[in-house]
Amino acid sequence: MNEGKIKKILKKYEDRRDESEIRLIEHKKEINAKFPEIMNLNDDISKIGLRLAKIVLEKPEDRDAIVFKCREDIEKLTAKREDLFLENNIPLDYLELKHRCPICKDKAFLPNGEKCTCFKQELINEAYNMSNLGNVLDRENFFTFNLNLFSNEKIESKGVSPREHMISIYQPASNFVENFGKEQSKNLFFYGSTGLGKTFMCNCIAKDLLDKGFVVIYQTAFMILQILEDYKFGKNPDQALSDENYRNLFDCDLLIIDDLGTEMNNSFTNSEIFNIVNTRLSADKSCVVSSNLNPFQIGEIYSQRVLSRILDKFEIYEFIGNDLRWERFK
Ligand SMILES: [Zn+2]
Domain end: 69, 87, 105, which one? Predict the structure, then answer.
């Protein structure tokens, strides 16, 4: 990725660290003004630490006894401070530095010099034009998921209502997120007409896993094909970026392919997209695929081998009902 973009991202990290510091200073000021007794306790606690260091230097022979006594004092004062926090409804970590990423403390890198997953994700967001994803995911996630949008009217041919049916998809989708990375990888295949909630469900999954610190690539099949073509045919002048984008499709923790089957239909694209899916499956890495086509139609466009792979390796869910985008206006 070009240096300017990386600098811009690192500047964002710097701003985040500054914001945390400023927030902490404001919290301290506020507590100082409203609850001076809490700040006094804070002072007392830090003074004990200083006193401890001094006494130990003066009387090294009594070290253990002194340390024990000081620890007791600190515990007492800390408990008293906690009581004051609770009595006044102040969050217990109100006077601590809070970071958006607790792993790297918003430094982007780990102590061993490796990139933190949050930084890897930022780079991916930038490279895959996913920078706006955050805004969408704030609106569309498991928390805002509204089952009432789905009709209670039974669809005769299916024997269930869209709402009942959606519950039967919601449950495994939230299990997928819950168990992600803890057990053998699973793959989900969502199909059905446009506007039935497939993309919303993909968003829910992406949001939760991003929040948990996994690296997620969420892209339409069409965009993934562009990345593949850039890589294979050297279309992108920035070859290093193009290589990295390509590699990330295999390396990321979760690849979400939206709208599979609507891309141009040529043999290069057909084989390449499934090359990625297949390699990921063999490496025990998860995929979530959404499509307007059912697995059998996908099999007809791609190949029978692809069909059997989907049937074998994916949990398959059909989305049914009426187009939700219109339902909202009724
Ligand atoms: Zn981080």
Answer: 87
